[in-house]
Amino acid sequence: MAGDWIKMRADLQTHPKVVRIVSALKADKLRVIGGLHAVWCLFDTHSEDGTLDGYTFEAIDNEIRWPGFSAAMSSVDWLSTDGDSSLLPEFDEHNGQSAKRRAQETKRKRDERRAAENGDADRKVSASDADEKRSREEKRREDSSSPSLRSGEEGARPTPGEACKAMKAAGMGSVSPSNQKLIALLDAGITIPELVDAASYAVEHGRPFAYALATAEGRRRDAASTKPLPAAQRGAQTTHDRRAATLAGLTDTGEHHADRDCRTVDVEAHIVA
Q1: 251: domain range?
Q2: Which of 82, 152, 163, 192 is the most buried (most CB within 10 A)?
Q3: Does residue 228 contact residue 195 with C-beta atoms inside 8 Å?
Q4: pTM higher than 0.70, yes or no?
């Protein structure tokens, strides 16, 4: 869920830890590098904080079809376990969005230095220009989010892992941080209390995780669609009411005068007679 690429060192094949894994497994070095890539991609896809719930060493070995590989990674401190889950040390250093942003920033600066050294002024981009460009891109991404789901006041965006942890605490048994609906809701500004409330409702009615997300989304849309009357419309309605009241008063007054004039004509006719 963190992206469609991961960081891998250019000198990985000569790294001492890779050499130790090769020796432990008595395997080809390139095959070991392929196994490392498979494990790191597994964590990058399904983990927010470097922990894979439910993935034991045996489960990981079955996933990459290499018995003993997880233990070999553990022997060089590249993998650990607490029994029911596996953990990837220094996950934030090499995986996840923050690591990828750092990698992209490093590449951008390296390209700028090369352009400057080659005297290619047309390709050189200043750091301030690049920062401004990134800010515009982030603003476009925010504006493209569904306006009916975004809240007026936004704090720090919770991670899917934090959201799932809170929903599990509310009684939701099976959750998934990689669920695309959950990620979209968090990007749109949904809050932890809203998700927890929806999770409690789903648990109370015996419904699954997907139902809780749909409930949270529906409630936010309903709240967004219930808007107060705009000021201009309120003013127009008030003016309309005043005009209606004035016309009603004029009608009553006109009827009163007409009745009085009729009585006056009757009296005058009686006197003449």
Answers
A1: 232-273
A2: 163
A3: no
A4: no
